[in-house]
Amino acid sequence: MKAMNRRKLFTVCATIAVASLAVTAIPAQAAEVGVSSSEIKLGMTLPMTGTASPGYNKIPGAVKAYFDYVNANGGINGRKLTLVVKDDQYVPTLAVAKTNELILKDKVMALLAPLGTANNKAVASVVNPGARGIPTLFVNTGFSGFADKKKYPTTFSLLPSYIMEAKIMAEYIKDNFAGKKLGLLYQDDDFGDDALAGFKQAGLNFDVKVAYASGSQGDKVSPAQWVTKLQAGGAEVVILFGVSSATAAALGTASVMKFAPQWILGSVGGDATTIKASGVPAGVLYNAVGASFAPATTDTADEYVKLFQEIYLKANPTETFDNNVMVGMNTAFLTAQALKAAGTNPTRKSLIAAIEKSGKNFASAALVPLNYSTTSHVGYNGYWFGKYSPTGDLKPAGGVYTVYTTDSGNGAVVKSTYKRPAMPAKGLPN
Amino acid sequence: MFQLLNTILIGITAGAIYSLMATAIVLVWRSTRVINFAQAGMALLSTYFGYEAMVHFNSFWIALPVAMVGGAAVAALIELVFMRLLVKRSSTGPIAAVAPIIATLGLLGLIKGLISTFWGGADVRLVGPVTNIGYSIGDKTLAFSPLKLLTLCTVVVLMLLLTVLFQKSNIGLSLRASAYSPEIARLSGVKVDFVRTLGWSLAGASGAVAGMFQTVNGNGAFSPESIEFSLLLISGFIAAIIGGLESLIGAVIGGLVLGLVVSFVLMYISSSLFFIAPFLILLIILFIRPQGIIGVKAARRG
Amino acid sequence: MDKLKGANKLGLYVVSGFILFLLGNRVDELRVYQGASIAVFVVAISSIILLTGYSGQVSLGHGALMAIGAYSAVISRNSFHTPVILTFVIAVLIAAIGGALLGAAAARLSGPYLAGTTLALAIGLPSLANQFSILGGEQGIFFDVGFPPPSLGEGFTQYKWFFWIAALAALISMWLVANILRSRFGRNWRAGRSNETAAALSGINVSRSKILAFTISAGVAGLAGALLSMTIGIVSPSAFPLTLSFSLLTGAVLSGVSTLSGVMIGAVTLVAIPEIADAVATRIGVSERLTTNLPGLMVSTLLILTVLFVPNGPVEQHRTRQARKAAREKH
Q: Where in the sequence is the domain holding A324, given as residue range(s)?
């Protein structure tokens, strides 16, 4: 009797298993995954919740705002652009799981601007979009390695690498703060290592270095310790080379501990809106040095800033137009051009080929050039420096953008002569 | 010297808040023999009550009691509706050992889910009643501010109140009696049900204070996923265990030991050791005294 | 009848294996991947059932034991290029050693103290990886069990390979655990669980028996950890959060904490709930906030309802009902 029941139960369990597994699969049909006659589907992973999310969680809204603008103007060759967003909480294992979902369940054509160095590395190694021919466009990280076409054949970098940023920053420090005691706060992973490599190459030595743990546990537990260490080490100029939440935590804690060195903020965590939104008084930011490759978000005389701001605020009237939004919309703008260039029936292959062939001529809001070619997947390669205004907005020194460019190797830092081409009509791909 | 002083100050402030949380856990343990994993969730909910009061009245001194009363009410409700049913339904069989743990873990998830559904996942903000700008010695500023001082004072006052309550009335004894042997306690005239609910409500109120102060002592922002509240859960629980689970003074000692050791480890060894330090402290203490610092030996078979 | 059971059972496992094999060929890649996840949970949950349901000890730290298994596997695979099977065996052995140590400590502790220690372990141990560069820090180490053998054909995907390995491991470990539970050890555990003093009087060394339970449970958990990191491809602290330990307990309770045969229920539920929540949310079109919170709310509610109304699990419930019915029929 007992044995029979057990068997019956086993059958029940097996049936549940079968049923749960056998829920219908969608048969493949179209010419390319994620591309139908009316739609092109793209997927993005980034932290939408959790410690590291502030600031970055506005990016999908920015991308969608621009996509909707394109869709309202006829889409890309009649196809609407859709973005599927997955929250990875800045945790690599979750990024892997969510990317799997994007590819297997949502069946996206390409991955767009997935965020985070460690996350992208994990995805590249485990999900391996490279081997599967899935384009990974404009990764939202400055890790220099992602531009390596051999290792990551379908990945395109966009942001200037952390090595470039560190090299240019080192040059700026030598010019402006020679002889001062230097402090550095960096993230204890590949993101930080890339920066350290850049500083080392530029021959910059720090008097105090403080590493904070990346990931979910990181930056809310010990800012008082970071600041104490920087202060005890006598740092006069402090570089914050971390994510937004860590940058904000350091600035906020420093302000209550009345520690006010000359701050230099890295581009990753230097978004003023995010810092202010986490409770740091705008005054703390005043006179801090920051870097960007896009025009200042308050520069409404700039045609891109004007248009992007208009589109974004129409779609999200209660939000603030900030640097994360600006860069997000610029990424969406590049994506639309890439898809347009990939032909009337875009495929994963033709998309990659299109960026390699004409990517360096894509219109873009940035003040530095794109460097795509059949041999290079490097995006932007430079920065301009500015100071934060009393209201906490990053503005170029003297109102003029002085752009420096370099490479991720041992090339010199040079003043750029790049002149940005005019924006195409209505800011749409032509 | 400056660094050492700051390390101690950071440790004591953190430890004081852990003590409060540990107290909440001890109170629930003493009244119902349950380790309440939902305590941090309840503290979070109370802090949201405090936030709502702050929005309406714009005063921390109204928000704090609102959070405490709200926390106490929620705790009482959970004890009345949920824990009694639990004791009735699953106190026998192989599940009995894990039922309370599982049930309170379930509650934790439920409370967090409801909070995120109701208030959303975005950060909201509390502002402390006094400044968090540190006191200065010479040209250096300490990691200790009027707000931190207020935190310490509040914890001391609360602890004194609880101790007086326990000593002047026989609540402390009744709590223990109700937990150990409800039948005998009932026969000897203890209002067992009332005492159990009281234990939970006091815990709810101390958790609320812990939540409010943990939040304002950080950057003031919190959300359902705030790491501060996971820390409260873990640190409060570990502090309670270190202290021996049975006494308020144990909870305070446990909290301070934990706060100080963690602060020293973060400052002088590595900031990525945050989660290992408590484990090692716990292991060492339990290795020497399996019943915790102030624990009662016979009581550990709970 | 009882004598026959052992042999029958083995047949049953073989048949189940064959069914899974056929199934694996018929469903799409996503389902195959989910199938592998279910198999991983089956192994992990059975380790909890063995420990808590049979030997009566609570562990909130099985995530940490899984981490031990996973790190042992990845290090032996990456540094010594061990073959796949040996890799998993090593994971089992090293996790079992960890479990024996923890079990020895656990034998001194009880109730909340044990819960506290294992909880601290679950939080503390995985982050040890940040301290030693060989363990890869927060980013972790990539774990590659290699591509499926070419003899399996072109269309044989990586995920199907994971599914095969995980399902096979699950079947083997279930069979072993079921047999251990029916052996003398299993009986000793149950005796110790229901009455320690009585068990000791009847000649059982209770604390040794408890340590043994911890050791075996840890070995099984270690296997689960290695399998988990195989399916996600990385071994890192973030793969073993506290919530993992909690979900294992959840799975065990949903399965029925003392009924190994219910383990599928818990495993399938854990994997299926996000999907079900997703479907429900799209069907009835709730707000975005509710959509993101629905899976969590569903798991918690299910857990609370189970503890309150089916405390010993669906299988036990069913059995009791059948027994009652049988008793009534007799009278």
A: 39-160+297-380
